[in-house]
Design a protein that fits this description.
It contains three helices and 33 strands. Strand 21 and strand 22 form a beta hairpin. The longest helix has 16 residues. It binds beta-D-fructofuranose (FRU). Beta-D-fructofuranose binds next to strand 1, strand 5, strand 9 and strand 13.
């Protein structure tokens, strides 16, 4: 709601002529202070990517606001990442598509803004595909176009039908984009929200399919040329979590590990009502007949139990068929208020998705891409030990830019609590705990308060069925933690804002003994140096 009001307000400002003069005046005075700003620029360059809380190996924009990942497509040796971007402010506002590319999913090169708002509207989330057969006619078979399919949020807002779908194409590897002259290509004058098209090539029916959110459901459309779209079916009525509006769907096929069975997975982000409050991403497993998604599942499964993994979708056309997901590492509850400057928001680490079967049920598994290993530098090994009470572990490299791999064996009697706790001299702490009594894994951080954010420090919980062993994999990057339990079968992603970096790590086993079988910690290289 607040977002919408802000939006209307900014739209109004830009149509206001008086403001035009103010802008002109500002631009002319800019000339006088150019020397000053050149000097400031070099100061900025020195501190850029070294600011307090700045992630060192997660993608962040150089400056200003970012939310959802958009248009993720692999083409000609490059992974493209577009993203929801407000280039004028560190809060959400008029949306553009920011742009970056990577050859290895770890190092990113920033590119100029790809799509700007225009007279129709602002550029909301969407996807991109490499149109290899030139079905759209925008390129040739020899030089196929990249086509972006995005939502216009209309400037002229009526009560319904203010979101429509449009396309743009690029003939130079995504460096410049031309909007299609007959945009929008798909409208629905009756719906209150109709956005975030994710398009993929469906091999079985040899056509393009689009999943798109529409208020409380996902709709599926088909097309032969990316310009004309035909309604196929919808999904979601009375199914899954509906604490908020449905957003950013994705639909893809995955093989169940160790079998030749494959199932279809529908991802749907939901604006409110996540397992630990606010926005989160649910998923459904089922079958897809080329037109309709079918599942017996009624209750949602959560892709990530932490508070900070939203609007995630997968890359189109990954070279080796991997399904790689990237999420926005924040939550609409407080995204506009987190204490970072001059940028706001980071992406999660790219994760490869697969399916496993446990107790006759299929489950989504998410693991950091193998490419991340190339960032490992100093390796610390913690000797195996039996744990009872608190044990500080000595690590000869930094703790806040590191990857952790621990594996524990429970003895005859399970401890009541098994945990890891990072802390600094100012008393900020971050802990990961397994609590046998409630049967859950918890994540808790304490540190400086975030204005207006309620419950930021409260414990985040994920249900966990104890086994004899527990494997914990953690990625820590200054102001975030990503926790992968038992090879990615449970994931929790969370922001944390320690005033100064954590310096101490303790492992603890309370009311029962545990064996630490393996403990390895790697400091990771910064991707910005
Ligand atoms: C999800 C979302 C999308 C929308 C975009 C606007 O976070 O609300 O539904 O397209 O953000 O920035």
């Amino acid at each position: 709601m607040l977002r919408d009001l802000l939006f209307e307000y900014i739209g109004h400002i830009f149509r206001n002529k008086v403001l035009g003069f103010v802008l002109l005046f500002t631009l002319s005075t800019y000339g006088c202070s150019r020397h000053e700003s050149v000097r400031n620029e070099s100061v900025v360059q020195d501190t850029l990517y070294h600011e307090q809380f700045r992630p060192q190996y997660h993608f962040t924009p150089r400056e200003k606001w970012m939310n959802d990942p958009n248009g993720m497509v692999y083409f000609d040796g490059e992974y493209h990442l577009f993203y929801q971007h407000n280039p004028d402010s560190t809060v959400w506002g008029p949306m553009h598509w920011g742009h970056a590319v990577s050859k290895d999913l770890t190092h990113w090169e920033h590119l100029p803004i790809a799509l700007y708002p225009d007279s129709i509207g602002f550029i909301f989330s969407g996807s991109a595909v490499a149109d290899l057969n030139n079905s759209s006619g925008f390129g040739t078979k020899e030089e196929p176009p990249l086509v972006a399919i995005f939502t216009y949020r209309h400037r002229k807002r009526s009560t319904k039908g203010f979101e429509s779908q449009a396309i743009a194409y690029s003939l130079d590897k995504g460096r410049t984009w031309i909007k299609y002259k007959d945009n929008p290509v798909l409208e629905d004058k009756k719906s209150l929200g109709f956005r975030d098209p994710k398009v993929f090539w469906h091999v079985g029916s040899k056509r393009w399919l689009m999943v798109i959110s529409s208020e409380d459901r996902v709709r599926i459309y088909s097309s032969i040329n990316l310009k004309e779209w035909v309604f196929e079916s919808d999904f979601g009525d009375q199914i899954g979590a509906h604490g908020g509006v449905w957003e950013c769907p994705d639909l893809f096929e995955l093989q169940v590990e160790g079998t030749d069975i494959s199932k279809w997975v529908m991802l749907v982000s939901v604006g409110k009502g996540g397992p630990n409050g606010g926005s989160a991403t649910q998923y459904f497993i089922g079958d897809f007949n080329g037109s309709k998604f079918l599942t017996d599942q009624v209750t949602p499964k959560w892709m990530d139990y932490g508070r900070d993994n939203y609007a995630g979708v997968t890359w189109s056309g990954s070279p080796d068929g991997r399904k790689i997901l990237l999420g926005w590492m924040s939550n609409w509850q407080y995204a506009n208020m987190v204490p970072t400057h001059p940028w706001r928001s980071a992406m999660t680490i790219p994760c490869e998705l697969t399916l496993i079967e446990t107790n006759g049920e299929y489950q989504l598994v998410s693991r950091p891409v193998v490419e991340l290993k190339s960032l490992r530098k100093q390796r610390n090994e913690i000797r195996p030990m039996s744990l009872s009470g608190y044990q500080e572990v000595e690590i000869k490299s930094r703790l806040d830019q590191s990857e952790y791999l621990f594996s524990f064996d429970f003895g005859q009697e399970e401890p009541e609590v098994l945990g890891l706790e990072w802390s600094n001299q100012l008393g900020d702490t971050l802990s990961v705990e397994y609590l046998s009594e409630g049967g859950y894994i918890g994540l808790r951080s304490s540190g400086p308060e975030i204005p207006l954010v309620k419950n930021f420090e409260s414990i985040q919980r994920a249900p966990y069925q104890s086994k004899e062993k527990l494997k914990i994999h953690v990625l820590m990057d200054w102001s975030s933690i990503e926790l992968f339990v038992d090879d990615g079968s449970l994931v929790m992603t969370s922001l944390a804002f320690p005033t100064v970096p954590y310096e101490t790590l303790k492992i603890y086993s309370l009311k029962g003994e545990t064996t630490l079988k393996e403990g390895i910690v790697w400091e990771l290289k910064s991707i910005w140096e």
